Amino acid sequence: MADNEPDIVQRVRRRLEQVSMARAISFAVIAAVAVWLAISLGFAWASWSESLSASLAASSNVIASVAAVLCGVVALWLSRKRDGTMSPMRAALWLEEQVPSLHFALATLTDVNSAVIAISPTAHERLVAAVGKPEIATTLQQTTRSRLAVPLVGAVVLLALAMPLHARLSPESANAAGGAGIGKRNVNGVARKAGKALSNWKIRVVPPAYSGIAPSTFGDIGLVNALVGSAVEVSGDDDAAPDVLIKSITDTVKPKSLSVTTSVTNAANVWRTHVTMPNAPAEVRFTLGTAIRQLLLEPRVDSLPVVRLQSPRADSVYRVATGSVTLDATAHDDFGLSSADFELIVTSGEGERFTAKTVMLAAQKLNGEKDTRLHATMSLDTMKLEAGDIVHMRAVARDRHPDAAREAGTSETRTFRIARPSEYDSVAVEPAPPPEVQKSLMSQRMLLIMTEKLEVRRPRLSREVLVRESRSLAAEQSRLRKTVGDLVFQRLDGEDGADHTSGEAEVHGFKIEQGKLVPIPPNEVTSSSNNGAPPRTEAEGDESPLIGVNKPLLEAYNAMWDAASALDVADPKTAIPHMKLALAAIERARSAERIYLRGKPPVVIIDVNKIRLAGKDTGQKNERASREAISPREAERESRLLAAALLMSRDVAAARDSLAFLRLETLTDAPRLAAALNDALEVARRGGDITNALIRARRLISGGTAADSLSSWRGLR
Amino acid sequence: MRMLSSLKVSVESPFTFTTAQYESGDWDSGPLVPANVIDAIARYTTIPVAPKGIIVPLSSEDVFRSPLLYLTGHLPVRFTPKESEVMAEYVKRGGMLFIDDHNHDIDGPFNKTITEEIRRVLGSLTPLPNDHELYRAFFKFENGAPTTSHELNGWGDNLVHEHLLAVLRNNRIGVLYSNKDYSSEWGYHPDNKRFLSVDNTKFAVNIVVYALTR
Predict the structure, then answer these.
(1) In Å, how far is A352's CA from the nearest CA of chain B?
(2) What is the ipTM metric for this complex?
(3) Are A167 and A174 within 8 A, CB to CB?
């Protein structure tokens, strides 16, 4: 520094240096805060959108702070570099700028060594006096304010904004501030606003007594996994008890026992909340002031006992209800069994009448064993099963769950059926021979075929050959007739004779006329004819039951007699119709004896159209066609008719003239219209109501019917 | 009725009455019921209906083609695992299972076993209120399910059952269970319906309309 330099230069230099530094610091603060805010907001957004990893979230504050400091330093350096070093020369030049009359004397004095240039004291005083004016100090203050105002205000405003945002964006700051901040969202999308309140609770889980599991205590956890029905106690030491709300978080299972109770003990302000573990996942939400926290309940279900039937391995059908069946099963439960047995349901009866009884075998009382084995022998003899009975057997095990409505674990069900005598369960059973009726049917059909062939060959055969073959068929036919007769008489009295005499037939209510069996009318039945036995063909109505049952066979018997007679005289052509009749009768007899089992009724097919009366229409169709458009000339006449009708109410004379004009016009090409108009004019002349007449005329113009009403009924002619 | 007319437009194939055939018991104890129900549907509604019912094994996924399944019997019922699986899936998909106890006896083997099986496979049966919309689905039954002659005559369990039972799924009937023995009540040839002063199969129309429209 030069010795001649005035003090004012040093003061100005220092002030300008301070202003430059203050500006640089302000810019640095602005840059740092802006960068910190940007980075913190970025992390906060990433956290809210759940795209931020936990480790990165934990170090977010450090990252933002380091970046802010770096940016502040850079801004400071840049600002200082831009302003440069404040030397005495720059201060002198600033003063020269304020006092132009110095003509760089001060700058020269400051720049040049005083040893080189000597300055008189008078000049020095004048120089000091020039730069020491009060206006210079005022200008310096104004310069200071103008240069510092913007950066300082900017820095202050930015800091004022950053402070509350910092408190909200930082979880730690939020906790420190008593839970006023915005926390991260949890996986369920519920914003966790927990501050110090509710931040430290203890959880005690007491499983149901029947499970045999010891109670357990947990620290500050957010998820409890426990057996359904467990008592969950949550305790904390906050100043007041929180509000607690429980709700199910699934809609697939209907939750039970969703209730919660909360109490506060006086000692040390400890609150306790009791929840019973529901059967569906649930959320318990605690709210204390602005703090909210949730506890998730994950129920563990007590599964039903698992029962496996080892023996028997398959259903069975017994021909005879005798012997024994070995039953074997295992049961397992996750918390222990209380009982196990075999359950048998025995069903007897058929159709609409059934009886059922339930039997338990090998019942065991258990005391919490997790596994057990069931073994029993089912004696079919002692069960007194009858044909058609069905036994449903399964193993059943119950656990120690105290709920009375608790279901039991069951095994598969095996079914044992006692076959009815009519059943054939094995394909090795030899088929029974066809019944007599069927044998007769086959022979009769064969005889008919042979007779038809004989009839075809007859023109080519000699008389001797025809008689021989025909009588052979007649003998066969007679043999068959006798077989059918045996069948009839066997049914009547259980015996079949070689020959059926008239006396024998009369015993059964028949008589033989010309070789045929004919029922004896009731008035001809004598006490001697049935040898004192009760009449077996008592008439009920028109015919006896016996005749009714055997009627087709009797018809076949008699038709065979006619056929054999015709064949005996070598007339196969006459025999064929009788043989066909016999064949049809035998078939009817066979069908009559067919037993239709219950459960196979005839298939009913509903005639939907018939029910809905939507069948085919066989009468006249009443189709309606759209009316054809009238010609322009008729349209013009119609409009004139309407105009005349409207005119009728105002000027009757004019209207009559119009109608008369129209009538005249239509006399040649539309005589019916003209006649109708004439009727209208006639009515108008009489002073009557011409409405109907005009309507009729209008219908004639448009091609419709012209009848005023239905004609009177004239009766049938 | 407006609903039915819209139904007529939307339904592509006619409604086919389906009887469920299960392994145990006598599933075919009500052979004339399908024809009678079809007759009632044809008589009172415009629902396109197949003239003949079909029988589908309960273990077959063909049951998913039918919106309504009819199941009855006298004997104990134990569903096979496959039948249980299909039945649960059927109700889950929105099908309606109409089960009728042909014994009309709550102590009968059918009732005891089938209710157990329903509870095991589909959940508990609860009484269906007598003002349920089932009783207004087509005809109005002010007092709930109509009684049957078997109940009034004191046959079976000598009870007049005041409610039908049901398993509800999403407020819709998934299983309709009856102890009233409609299988006997409706077990006659449809041609004989003309001899009845009051058609006792009208309630079947409500069941079908409910199954198709709710």
Answers:
(1) 7
(2) 0.75
(3) yes
